[in-house]
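FORM 12-B: Structure-to-Sequence Request
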């Protein structure tokens, strides 16, 4: 593997409201010398076009840099697949904030540490989900479980009804507590034009 490659950064937040988090990642990636940075604001479980673009962009000898492991993968399997893709291209992975230090997969010790931490992170996530399921089951048994709050999609029929009753888009959004874009989407899906 050549050492002459470039540092390529990848920054991600789950929502557009996390602007400060994205800006912090971009600042850190620029500070350590990333010459190309791919950024996006999408959930890690959704399609990540900029991550795909970064994987396409990197070449042998390059290093893909992220600020934290959770910006890249949510599971040990997902991380392992990404590392395999990078290794097949001769590209290293560097995580800037990893258990108080940095990890770089260019060496065997870095790959070992990454795999151990990924396995622990996966275990922790599965334990958390297990506890959540137990808590929900207990709450249901006690008659206290309300479920999650309805999303804008669950309010689509109400949005269409209110619009047909003569309410303006902004009024429908205010009454239902959803964004105007959600109202437009509901109307479009119902075949109505605002």
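FORM 12-B RESPONSE
SEQUENCE OUT:
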């Amino acid at each position: 593997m050549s050492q002459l490659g470039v540092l390529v950064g990848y920054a991600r937040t789950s929502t557009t409201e996390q602007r400060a988090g994205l800006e912090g990642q971009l600042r850190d990636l620029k500070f350590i010398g990333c010459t190309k940075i791919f950024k996006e604001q999408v959930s890690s479980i959704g399609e990540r076009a900029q991550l795909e673009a970064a994987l396409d962009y990197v070449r042998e000898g390059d290093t893909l840099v992220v600020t934290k492991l959770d910006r890249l993968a949510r599971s040990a399997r997902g991380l392992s697949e990404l590392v395999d893709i990078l290794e097949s291209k001769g590209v290293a992975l560097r995580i800037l904030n990893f258990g108080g230090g940095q990890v770089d997969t260019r060496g065997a010790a870095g790959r070992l540490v990454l795999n151990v931490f990924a396995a622990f992170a996966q275990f922790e996530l599965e334990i958390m989900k297990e506890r959540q399921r137990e808590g929900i089951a207990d709450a249901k048994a006690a008659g206290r479980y309300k479920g999650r709050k309805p999303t804008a999609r669950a309010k689509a029929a109400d949005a269409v009804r209110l619009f047909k009753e003569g309410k303006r888009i902004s009024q429908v959004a205010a009454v239902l507590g959803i964004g105007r874009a959600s109202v437009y989407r509901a109307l479009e899906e119902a075949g109505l034009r605002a």
